[in-house]
């Protein structure tokens, strides 16, 4: 009998990395299942790039499994909320698929840090995707977006437009003293290039922080 994971591999596009035997140090459970999956197809895309499964080892396309799970890559910004997650893939909007500390497969929303249980095995995760590819696999949105804008690169994901509930809460912050930090003016240019409105940029770059901390702005936050 063909499993859901088998079906997912058959309909996927890949591999994203070189063929190799992947060993994640487990003989049973989701981590062992993931190692077996990547040994069969080392990273792939499914549902017209609505779903991306990371590759194990270099070289290759898209995020590399171990590097993606290094704290400094992104997890250290979540104040411990993602520390027990071993992320192995993501959807079109960067929502992570991961194995948690209890050996369960979960979905982790990077915007809210909310977790949803998807199953106790990789096959249950694959079945969840196959049950509704357009919603769970984000297939319909991925197809519509790429029909209009062209194919996504292996390193590219989309971000959802900010809900109105957060319009008065988001605050820009620097990564100083990290070497890859950018200035506030760099951030303004990037936001403007992404068609974020002048009003929203002003809120994100200063007004929200001034309101939340009860301080006065010394320099107007605007683009241009």
Can you describe this structure?
This protein has helices spanning 4-11, 30-40, 65-68, 122-131, 139-149, 184-193, 198-213, and strands at 44-46, 51-53, 86-91, 96-99, 105-108, 115-119. By secondary structure, it is an alpha+beta fold. The chain folds into two domains: 4-149; 164-213, no CATH class. The chain has a six-stranded antiparallel sheet. Helix 1 (4-11) packs across helix 4 (122-131).
Tertiary shape: globular
Element-by-element helix/strand order: HHEEHEEEEHHHH
Any idea how many domains? 2
Low-pLDDT stretches are none
Mean pLDDT, all residues: 87
Gap from first CA to last CA: 62 Å
Helix-residue proportion: 25-40%
Number of strands: 6
Q: What class, by secondary structure content?
A: alpha+beta
Rounded to the nearest angstrom, the radius of gyration is 20 Å
Give the biggest sheet. 6 strands, antiparallel
Oligomer: single chain
Tally of DSSP helical segments: 7
Give the helix/strand layout:
Blueprint: H1 4-11, H2 30-40, E1 44-46, E2 51-53, H3 65-68, E3 86-91, E4 96-99, E5 105-108, E6 115-119, H4 122-131, H5 139-149, H6 184-193, H7 198-213
Antiparallel strand pairs: 1-2, 2-3, 3-4, 4-5, 5-6
In short:
The protein is of the alpha+beta class. It has helices at residues 4-11, 30-40, 65-68, 122-131, 139-149, 184-193, 198-213; strands spanning 44-46, 51-53, 86-91, 96-99, 105-108, 115-119. Helix content is 31%, strand content 11%.
